[in-house]
Write a structure and sequence with these properties.
By secondary structure, the chain is mainly alpha-helical. It contains 23 helices and no strands.
Length: about 475
């Protein structure tokens, strides 16, 4: 096989539509949590069952996928093809959105959770396919940057999702409406289900490859004599890293509304732009980290590293202006973005170094948030989004490096660990019920501490296997 020299944009662009959907739904959960908490009279720990139902479905989906593959004595995705797998995942998610109709009409919290669970069950299959596929649609040396770019599209969805769902429940920001109607939730999710089906059809007839071999074949030079993906320590430790990374990313946002309501006196309807800013922060960081996927020109990369984050910040301001939110509290955030740019430049594109730097900054942001009050703490907690922004592609790239023919199996194990988003969110909610929401962010500090450890440990593991990301970096910076 001749290795692709450039990213196949004609195939990559249709693929990233599914990344958008994942972000839209995941961030919208942060609006549903405070709404359900009031409507169903839940504790903070109980309200986090929204996150548990959504993220544990990823694990269940991965287990189902592996059981089917085992029983049929062959890899399910390789058998039915990547395009068909994506389409099937979208149809499953569409079925989940249908449950929102009877759930909203009957006011059933368990039925709402069931709908979210089935939506995420479809996402599990989509994620297992789409992440390695994004890496495969071009040269392996820029695979991490392509995954970062796809993550940037994901966060366009996370930026817009909370605003649309909040609008569906409360109306415009200037309406003064504080009434929450559970029934108003069903329309945006039914529209979302229709969008799932439309994209499933479009992907089915797109030029996406059914059985891409780029990732597997490009790694064949590295020893793949081990019998299973679980024989590779970078994957085992990487699975834990994905668990705690998704955990801290989700729990920081999902517990923020309760903190702003209880400690700072915000109304539920006024929290949406801050949740939007949190998820936009991931978009800001990912657009910055994806610069290398567009050009190899060093001078142009330096310029784009300053333009990309502020362009993404401009998208956040624009969509919130359309939603008629007051933008004045957010302008100061432009200064915090400078920290992100400096950290990105210091990492020099090395995923292990980037993981270490960004995890350390995540710890600093949470500690500042816990040590302060008022809007300073809100900005500190929100900035965690900036420092989570490139961690997924860093961990994913490091964890599947050197797996060769076991890459798709390793990918499935990593997707399984997305359940950390639900477990860690529930754990932080439980700690908040025992102490305070402010104090509960210590859970996130511990998550980042493990990620810093993984960044240090995995570098040595990969070097022992003949994989050195510094060699690639030295030629690229």
């Amino acid at each position: 096989m001749s290795t692709e020299q450039k990213t196949n944009w004609g195939q990559f662009i249709p693929l990233v539509t599914v990344f958008f959907f994942w972000g839209f739904v995941a961030a919208s959960n942060d609006i549903l949590i405070p709404v359900f908490k009031k409507a169903f009279d839940l504790t903070q720990g109980q309200s986090q069952l929204v996150s548990v139902a959504f993220y544990v479905a990823y694990t269940v989906g991965s287990i189902i996928y592996m059981i089917i593959s085992y029983l049929t004595k062959g890899d399910l995705i390789n058998r039915i093809g990547y395009k068909n797998s994506l389409a099937l995942g979208l149809v499953i998610s569409a079925l989940g959105t249908l449950l929102f109709y009877p759930a909203a009409n009957t006011g059933s919290f368990p039925l709402m959770l069931s709908g979210l669970f089935i939506v995420a069950l479809g996402f599990s299959l989509q994620q297992t396919v789409a992440n390695p596929l994004a890496i495969a649609l071009g040269p392996i040396t820029t695979g991490s940057q392509r995954l970062t770019l796809a993550g940037g599209i994901n966060n366009l969805g996370t930026t817009i999702g909370p605003l649309i769902v909040s609008f569906a429940i409360f109306g415009s920001a200037t309406s003064g409406n504080t009434d929450m109607s559970i029934e108003s939730v069903k329309i945006p999710y039914l529209v979302l289900g229709a969008a799932f089906l439309l994209v499933a059809i479009l992907l089915k007839f797109s030029s996406l490859p059914d059985k891409p071999q780029a990732v597997v074949e490009s790694d064949e030079s590295i020893s793949t004599s081990r019998s299973s993906a679980l024989k590779y320590p970078q994957l085992i430790l990487g699975m834990i890293a994905i668990f705690v990374y998704v955990g801290v990313e989700v729990s920081t946002a999902s517990n923020l509304p309760a903190y702003m309501e209880k400690d700072l006196g915000f109304l539920t309807k006024d929290i949406a732009p801050y949740i939007s800013l949190y998820w936009a922060s991931l978009m800001i960081g990912r657009w910055t980290g994806a610069v290398e996927a567009f050009t190899e020109d060093m001078n142009l990369q330096k310029i784009l590293r300053f333009i990309a984050p502020y362009l993404a910040f401009g998208v956040f301001l624009f969509v919130n202006a359309l939603a008629k939110h007051d933008l004045s509290p957010f302008y100061v955030y432009a200064l915090i973005i400078l920290v992100l740019i400096a950290a990105d430049m210091a990492s020099k594109g090395n995923p292990a170094k980037m993981l270490l730097i960004f995890s350390s900054l995540g710890i600093l942001a949470l500690v500042i948030g816990m040590a302060t009050t008022g809007m300073t703490s809100v900005y500190a907690f929100t900035s965690v989004g900036l420092f989570c922004s490139t961690l997924w592609p860093c961990i994913f790239t490091l964890a599947i490096s050197g797996l060769g023919k076991h890459t798709s199996q390793g990918s499935s194990f990593l997707i399984m660990m997305i359940m950390g988003g639900g477990i860690v969110s529930w754990l932080q909610g439980y700690v908040a019920d025992l102490t305070t929401i402010h104090v509960s962010y210590i859970v996130g500090v511990l998550c980042f501490a493990y990620l810093a450890f993984y960044a240090w440990k995995v570098s040595g593991i990969l070097k022992d296997q003949g994989i050195n990301f510094d060699k690639k970096v030295s030629g690229g910076h």
